[in-house]
Amino acid sequence: MTERIRSLEKLRKMPESISELEDQAAQLQGKIDRLRAAIELEGKHLQNADENAAAIAINFKAVMLSVGFPGVSEEDEVIVDPRSWRPVILHDDQEWTFWEAGSGGKKTLFNVCYALAVHETARDRNLPVPNVLIIDSPTKNISEDMNPDLVKSLYREIYRLASGAGDKAIQFLLIDSDVVEPEEYLPNFLQRGMAGVEGAPSLIPYYEGP
């Protein structure tokens, strides 16, 4: 009789156990759904990173060709790793980066061209990058007397990006020993020297010198 009562008690509690298992299964399914959504979102982020890196690579190559970067040709391929954002130039069966660029002047030029490509890509793809770029000595170790075409083409590329309208414009603060003025009218172009001259006040009011 006691055994029969226990069996009946188990049968009575069985719906409660099933209900508990169903609740646990629903909770597990909810976790699975959240994990799947997180995986899909991360996949989209990785895809966006790949697309952004590819866009930077295209713009980087275009800027280098426009500037006339020594040793870079149309046949070369540029790759930007979306994990490290490290640009690599592929030339036939050789590859080189910033460290193999050559002289100090070419390394500086490499970095400036890459910065221009990043900001142009950010502007075109609405990425969260400030639309202000400060470049200190963009023509370092590149004398305007020795390589005037390279210097002019670099500044021409900078002014191209600065000439965009509205939120498409990139504001530049250039610090350089040589001044290369825009070939065409550029709104809001200002020139300041360490020491003031007629029509252009000193950058630092109290400074007196060359």
Rounded to an integer, what's the Rg over CA atoms? 30 Å
Secondary-structure-derived class? mainly alpha
The proportion of strand residues reads 5-15%
Provide the number of structural domains.
1
CATH hierarchy, class: Alpha Beta
Quick overview:
This protein is mainly α. The protein contains three helices and five strands, in the order H-E-E-E-H-E-H-E.
Structural write-up:
This protein is mainly alpha-helical. It has one domain (2-175): P-loop containing nucleotide triphosphate hydrolases (Rossmann fold, 3-Layer(aba) Sandwich). It is 49% helix and 10% strand. It has helices at residues 2-67, 104-124, 148-162, and strands at residues 77-80, 87-91, 94-96, 132-136, 171-175. Helix 1 (2-67) crosses helix 2. The N and C termini lie far apart (112 Å). InterPro entries: P-loop_NTPase.
SSE layout and pairing:
Layout: H1 2-67, E1 77-80, E2 87-91, E3 94-96, H2 104-124, E4 132-136, H3 148-162, E5 171-175
Parallel strand pairs: 4-5
Antiparallel strand pairs: 1-2, 2-3
Helix pairs in contact: 1-2
InterPro entries: P-loop_NTPase
